[in-house]
């Protein structure tokens, strides 16, 4: 296992007489010393490739995701133990190995999945496919049809029923069968539409590990009694008869839950309360706005729109917080600033 900070880990794949040897080298410097270079020469190493997942790559990752410098400590204390568990599970089960990650909006799912995906690829030379449930959202035309035929609230992306579950199931099946030469969708939240297919992720090699994250991924359907009372102002005003939330619940039970059994390892990012979600989601939207090239044509939401938007997610987010950590392989408990305050592992 590699640690960051003052102590740096170098994972070397060394070939001696055509025999590949994995070796881990720990030290405090950021480049090979003359002594190490001479030692390599003395060992008559013909071909040495050093795969360094150190300060430079971690700094680049921090810059890409606009993260604070203290993220290095998060990696050391939390992300790497998770990655190690995933590797152990992969070694026992073999490929393909599915990892499911749940967390409410803005909890850090994308950051976590990107880091683990990069780390496993670089450190263990595995083909890791990272997917988000968000990328399977229906386009606005299909959601407008749902709004007309089922309930007006379905025009807004987010809840179960607003994803292309046929495409989701087909994609998971192809990954499970280790197929290649197919594309995984990508959704543009700035325009509220899928990206053109030319920009979708193409799977060119059989997947070893698949990481699928989503705010409602892994959540079970609620009982009829749980659906009776509105949970917030949105449901009270626009779904007082419960038609929308009942439809969402039925979609969750019929099209999402049957896919859960394929997941080998479940990880949950547990927020302290739903009160944090508005601020986290607002921060997320502001980051998104910085990436927009043509603001006039985007559908970036303001603070008032975000306040309304998160209400669509509240019911299942609270339900997830009350249930998922009981069965997850690992739970990361967050504080209001998204710092990981505790970890729990099972099995």
Q: Could you write a compact summary of the structure shown?
A:
With 347 residues, the chain is of the alpha/beta class.
Plain-language structure description:
The chain contains 11 helices and 13 strands. The protein is α/β, with parallel strands linked by helices and 347 residues long. The strands form 4 sheets. The chain has a 6-stranded mixed sheet, with helices on both faces. The longest helix has 23 residues, at 71-93.
For this entry, give a set of tags.
disordered N terminus; alpha/beta; 3-stranded antiparallel beta sheet; 6-stranded mixed beta sheet; 20% strand; 13 strands; 347 residues; globular
Q: Strand fraction band?
A: 15-25%
- Which of globular, elongated, flat, extended, rod-shaped describes the shape? globular
By DSSP (H or I, 4+ residues per run), the number of helices equals 11
In whole angstroms, how far apart are the ends?
A: 20 Å
Could you list the spans in which at least 5 consecutive residues all have pLDDT below 50?
1-53
Query: What class, by secondary structure content?
Result: alpha/beta
Strand tally:
13
Query: What pattern of helices and strands is seen along the backbone?
Result: EEHEHHEHEHHEEEEEHHHEHHEE
Strand sequence of the main sheet, in spatial order? 5-10-4-11-12-13
> How confident is the prediction overall: mean pLDDT?
84
Helix content: 40-55%
Write down the Rg.
Answer: 22 Å
